[in-house]
Amino acid sequence: MDVLGSFLPLSSSSVLGSALVLLVAYAAWSSASRSSEPRREEPPGPRPLPLLGNLLQLDLHKPHRTLLEMSKKYGPVFTFRMGPNTVVVLAGYKTVKEALVEYAEEFGEREPIQTAKEVKLSHGVLWNNGDSWKEMRRFTLSNLRDFGMGKKACEDKILEECQHLLDVFKNFRGDFISSTYVPVSKLMMSVPVSGEAFNTQQPLNYAVSNIICSLVFGSRFRYDDPAFTARVERTSRSIQLLGGPSMQLYNMFPWLGHWFYSGSRELRSLAMANRKQATELIQGLKETLDPQSSRGLVDAFLIRQQQQEDSGDVGHFHSTNLLMTVSNLFSAGTETTSTTLRWALLLMAKYPHVQEKVQDELRQVIGGRQVQVEDRKNLPFTNAVIHETQRLGDIIPMSLPHRTSRDVTFRGYFIKKGTIVYPLLTSVLHDESEWEKPTSFHPQHFLDKDGKFVKPDAFMPFSAGRRVCLGESLARMELFLFFVTLLQHFCFRPPPGVSEDQLDLTPQVGGTLSPAPHKLRAVAIISTTELN
Question: Is 70 exceeded by the pLDDT of residue 26?
Fold first, then answer.
């Protein structure tokens, strides 16, 4: 036993010593490799540890905050090691805009994360690159416009969906009487307010998802359709998983996934279920396809695919690209817009004086009629509130990862081809040199001294350059029409026993920055004319 006891410490020391020797050797080899290359100044950054990189300095619950703080120390272009991956971070409005717009080609590729690779998302329009991405983006954008995106036809679809959403909210409503002469806030002080508090996430997700479904499949789905609701819930769960701390670790160290994280398996399972359902929907459309009359983007793709097959060259119009494009549109087109609307309603409940001012403007300009997109130019304060919600909500703070397409010298720093790049959108939307109150809810950011709406150049929630969100015009139309319709009919209040000050604006970090789970009351506004 004594011999064994004395051997074990020696063995442990030997292992530790060997590990240290390997680390020193690695550092020496790395240094020698760099010294053998021509001297080119690379972006500064914190000193990384072997293998771990700067992982120990990264707050996995708020990675965008870590990088934002790092930018204050190392400047607007710096290097950060996420595990074994070298990442260049771009911070601040001027830097991000210059990279994405003036160096659009160099910074225009997408870097698929590990989980995206595993579920074969390297097709479609979100994670794809090269000629395939160009063709799919061009086709998708063209056909979404053909089917109404940004036009009156799409406006009508959204307004129709607004009515279905109103019906859901009315199930939870409480009532109070409003008139054109009494401010809502004063009236509510004297009138008992009832209404059941509820979570707005699900109905908003369903409503926004249906707009995408109308454009892609040619039809909407009922909110009680189990297949539709299951797909929406799976998509929401997937996006929640993507940004979690464990998934971030898995994307950095996929070879450790079998030991410490089952979320990747859940994500694959969710993706496969959604893919199976989308395949069935596409097959149903294929069986009823009329080449002379397209119902939506899927029909247009199938017609184009058939034309390509007839010519003997399918090219990029194959089934995988169709499936992935549909999946991309459904997930990206649902979560970002519905999350922004959830922020908007929460902010209205948090700041009732802003909500009252919005509703006063709506009564003066629109009255009781249905809102139209053309009303936006006459609703400067309402428009400012929507834009400020997008800015402060900061839905995708790190953007999706980019990748350099070639070696590039940017702002005096050399960045190699294939380097992962994070355009830090949160640093743009909270740039202290661009916004008067970058961390506060301040609709005046979007109003001039005369109260007219203005949009500062640093408003960049949809990113910029080659990878700018292709559904921007659709999202802007949805946000305006859904928000105004809801504010015309309801006043949003905290749950019983909760004050405005107690409403928490701390975001929940996932694939997007979303409000933490909460409930609100939707108190219906009944005009005096409705009672007569």
Answer: no
